[in-house]
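Problem 12. The chain below contains 110 residues. Write out its predicted structure in token notation.
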Amino acid sequence: MDYRRTNAPSNTETRDVMKLAEPVGNVYEMVRIISKRANQLSIEMKTDLDTKLQEFASYTDNLEEVFENHEQIEISRFYEKLPKPALIALQDWEEGEIYYRNPARDKEQF
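Solution.
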């Protein structure tokens, strides 16, 4: 899933939680799955942003040479306008793109 091309809304919406939890049958397990996916996306977004901003890093300590880097500002603005990782994870959940498994439940089936 490429988070840069997601169709997730950038603001929150009211959703029927019970309907969202139908695939797993438990609201708390659904929230746990979505939160883990949101953490994965957050880490991925942060590493991408850090690597892009490292290209423009200035390692001089001279205070007189303070300048604005317009490319760096544009990259930061792009990442600020992206939907939050929780909203992207929720959109992935609704579209059925998240793979999940519960090892404790798998033991019970054997």
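Discussion. The chain has one domain: 16-56+68-109. Students who got a different answer should revisit the alignment rule from Section 12.3.
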